[in-house]
Design goal:
binds calcium ion; mainly beta; about 140 residues
Length: about 140
C-alpha cells in the first residue's frame, strides 16, 4: 500500500492498494488490480484490473502528484509480469488520476527483468523560488 498523494483533488491524500492476486478463471487468474481509496469517503475512487493472467498488477505502487496539472493526482503501478506475458519482463504503468486511463507504459525489455517489482516516486521538490528571483528587469530597462 502507498500514499497516492491527492488523486481526486479534494486536498486530502488518498490511498493506493494493490491486490496482486486478484482475478479468477483461465483468462484472468492473478491478473492483479489497483484500488485507489478516498480516505474521506472510505470508498474506491478507481479500480483497475490487470489485462492478462499472472500479470500481478499492483505489486508495487507510487503516487506521482498531478503531472498534467488538471487537479487530479497521477499514480504508477508495477506488474511482475507484463500484459504480453513475455516471461516476466514486467511493466510500469502510469494512470491518470481523473479517469484512471493509461497515460504511459514502460515495459521490461528482457525475460525475467520483472521491471516494476518495486517502485518509488522521486522527490517532487522544485527550485521555483530560485528562478523567480533572478529577473533583474526593472522599470525603464530596455
Ligand atoms: Ca483526495
Ligand atoms: Ca492529473
Amino acid at each position: 500500500m502507498a500514499t497516492a498523494r491527492d488523486v481526486d483533488g479534494d486536498g486530502i491524500p488518498d490511498l493506493l492498494a494493490g491486490a496482486l492476486n486478484q482475478g479468477t478463471g483461465i483468462q484472468l487468474i492473478d491478473r492483479g488490480a489497483v484500488v485507489v481509496f478516498s480516505i474521506v469517503a472510505g470508498s474506491p475512487l478507481h479500480v483497475i484490473g490487470g489485462g492478462a493472467a499472472y500479470q500481478h498488477l499492483g505489486i508495487s505502487l507510487a503516487g506521482l502528484g498531478d503531472i498534467n496539472k488538471d487537479g487530479y493526482g497521477e499514480f504508477a503501478a508495477g506488474s511482475y509480469f507484463d500484459s504480453a506475458l513475455l516471461a516476466g519482463a514486467g511493466a510500469i504503468q502510469i494512470f491518470d488520476g481523473y479517469n484512471a486511463s493509461l497515460m504511459a507504459q514502460i515495459d521490461g525489455s528482457n525475460l525475467g527483468d520483472h521491471l516494476g517489482a518495486a517502485l518509488a516516486a522521486a522527490s517532487a521538490t522544485t527550485t521555483a523560488t530560485a528562478s523567480s528571483s533572478s529577473s533583474p528587469a526593472g522599470p525603464g530597462s530596455m
